[in-house]
TrEMBL record:
The keyword Acetylation does not apply. SUPFAM superfamilies: Homeodomain-like. Keywords: Coiled coil, DNA-binding, Transcription, Transcription regulation. It comes from Chitinophaga rhizophila. SMART domains: HTH_ARAC. It comes from the Bacteria. Residues 144-171 form a coiled coil. Residues 236-332 form the HTH araC/xylS-type domain. The keyword DNA-binding applies. This is AraC family transcriptional regulator.
């Protein structure tokens, strides 16, 4: 998504390094960013656009030196966008030029966007992260057994907002940023594989983020447990134990005995804190660890299989293909 239509961009150039980025933004700007100065230069925008298979990832950093400024978010094509406001500022936005939406800090929302959109930014710095995808991508995920309860509801809502030329799809339900969203964003932003492997990797992370968002909608009314500080520390220890034992067979029952928790409590508390089940986390971490080991040029593939808990390389390659949509050689 561009923040301005092509006709309104008055200055546009490639940044080779982040050397001319303000210090407070430097850690967040990637080397391939584009810098856009608009109009009287009261707005400076750093645009980052990353390919991710059927998804397209965008990240914007905006500096507003005036008390209040309008920007005009313009999608490259009419599309769905999973949007996250990453800073502490609330922004007033108008989708399709008339529907008012408050973009609250650390809130995740699903939009359908066409051309006429307005966001009014207060003075200061702003950070937006979002990715675009098609209706087919969304409905393909909703066909999965775990999400079918949302299929008809979201199909109806998407049709409504298309007729309005844009709108928020999850309204009035709100989804808040959590540790799992943050982890996925970090992985999308900082992956450093070869070009093809990076696209497959980002695609998987976008899919996981969209699925997590849909899961939050499904269980929005589910009561959350009150966790003590000690329980949270113990659950973090469980996560570290899983990482240190990725080469071994680990399951919820063993972990509950190891950390003196009931299996039912451990499973529910782990999911609540981390946004993912223990079983899914174990598999996700093994796949993550495999990508890192595969990037070590001279490491034998059988050693990689053993270190990630697979009986042989063929078993690892099969699991890897099911997870990332490509075989391990892409990451070599």
């Amino acid at each position: 998504m561009y923040l301005f239509s092509a006709a309104s961009i008055e200055f546009f150039r490639e940044l080779r390094t982040p050397s001319d980025v303000p210090v407070r933004f430097a850690s967040k700007i990637m080397h391939h960013s584009c810098k856009v100065l608009h109009g009287d230069q009261h707005k400076t925008i750093f645009l980052q656009r990353l390919p991710a298979g059927p998804y397209e990832v965008f990240e914007h950093h905006v500096i507003c030196v005036a008390p209040e400024k309008e920007i005009l978010p313009t999608p490259l094509t009419p599309s769905l966008h999973l949007h996250i406001s990453m800073d502490d500022n609330e922004v007033d936005a108008y989708v399709n030029g008339r529907e008012g939406v408050a973009l609250r800090p650390c809130e995740v929302n699903l939009f359908y966007l066409e051309e006429i959109n307005i966001a009014v930014l207060p003075q200061g710095k702003h950070w937006f992260f979002h990715f675009a995808f098609t209706n087919d991508t969304l409905f393909g995920i909703l066909q999965k057994k775990a999400f079918r309860g949302l299929l008809k509801k979201l199909q109806k809502k998407v049709k409504q907002v298309e007729e309005l030329m844009g709108g928020m799809i999850n309204e009035p339900a709100q989804v808040s940023m959590d540790a799992y969203f943050m982890m996925l964003i970090h992985e999308i932003r900082h992956c450093s594989f070869n070009e093809l492997a990076t696209i497959f990797y980002r695609e998987k992370k976008c899919q996981l983020m969209l699925e997590h968002f849909l899961r939050q909608l499904l269980y929005a009314n589910e009561l959350k447990m009150e966790l003590t500080d000690q329980q949270i520390i113990t659950l973090d220890c469980v996560k570290e134990y899983i990482k240190l034992n990725s080469h071994r067979s680990v399951n919820s029952r063993q972990l509950s005995e190891q950390f003196n928790m009931s299996p039912n409590f451990l499973e529910k508390a782990f999911r609540q804190l981390n946004g993912i089940s223990i079983r899914s986390f174990i598999h996700m971490y093994r796949m993550e660890y495999a990508t890192k080991l595969l990037s070590i040029k001279d490491m034998p593939v059988e050693s990689i299989a053993r270190l990630t808990g697979f009986r042989n390389y063929a078993a690892l390659n099969l699991a890897f293909y099911k997870y990332f949509g490509c075989d391990t050689t892409v990451f070599r």
